[in-house]
Amino acid sequence: MKALSLLLLISALLPAQPVKHTYTYKTVPGCNIQADIYRAPGDGVRPVILWIHGGALIMGNRSGINTIQLQEYLNAGYTVVSIDYRLAPETKLKAIIEDLQDAYHWVREKGPDLFQADPHRIAVIGHSAGGYLTLMAGFCLNPRPRALVAFYGYGDIAGKWYSDPDPFYSRQPAVSKEAAYQAVGNRVIAEDTGRMRGAFYLYCRQNGLWPKEVTGLDPASEPKKAFDAFCPIRNVTKGFPPALLLHGDKDTDVPYEQSVAMTKELERHHVRHEFVPMPGRGHGFDREMQAPDVAVAFDKVLAFLKNYLAQ
Prior knowledge:
This protein has 311 residues and is of the alpha/beta class. It has helices at residues 2-13, 67-75, 93-115, 129-140, 160-163, 167-170, 177-182, 198-207, 210-215, 256-268, 292-309; strands at 19-28, 31-39, 46-52, 79-83, 117-127, 147-151, 243-248, 273-278. It has a single domain, classed as Rossmann fold (3-Layer(aba) Sandwich). 38% of the residues lie in helices and 19% in strands. The chain has an eight-stranded mixed sheet with strand order 1-2-4-3-5-6-7-8, sandwiched between helices. Helix 4 (129-140) links the parallel strand 5 and strand 6. The longest helix has 23 residues, at 93-115. The chain starts with a helix and ends with a helix.
């Protein structure tokens, strides 16, 4: 009996396992695009976090959400919607952004009936390329989300950091064009499960080809305005949603200066925002959720969400 009582006590103290459902939010020829919905047990309408994975728009899938962060979001009372989107280079950026827009509209229109979502309280959170799409959400989604949280995101995709050969990646063994294109294909996909597509990304960074391969536009020959619609930093207005940016100053993938520049633009337009610099931290710093500085930073994320998703 004592053992049973102890088990019941432990069970009561542990967080309840989330309820997960998978839905197809959009279908294109040859590809179903899906979203995973996570809810803590119980009834009631809840605000939503629309979560966007990273992977340079080339790799990754909706299962990439950090399990500790997911549980923290659920414990705070949010429903989390983790989305896939079509991946480059098979799909170009314009269509990827359309997937983001369609996912957002699906949550607003179908979410109330499917998983008791509050369509008026939605925040968008993303990491790396997902952070970039999060910042895109600040002007390409209507109505605007209540809040944005961008982990090591970027506001400019046509700058030299992406359109010139990257010094950090160029120190790694060179990837041939043949090997790069063998890592991708011609078929439209919305989730990368094979983990082989990184060779294509490395090839793009070593040769400064990412903007061209992902958008279909070449910064070297196109006029600057051709990239306006794909650069959040060029589209900040006073109507931009409140934004929280987090970035490590030792990031070797997305320059720390990308978040610094975006912060200055938010300040210039008097947009409510916070910037959380992470001294000594690199790309993906939040994988170390047990580290004291990361835990403090994530507490700021939760406080920010509470501030803007409250009734």
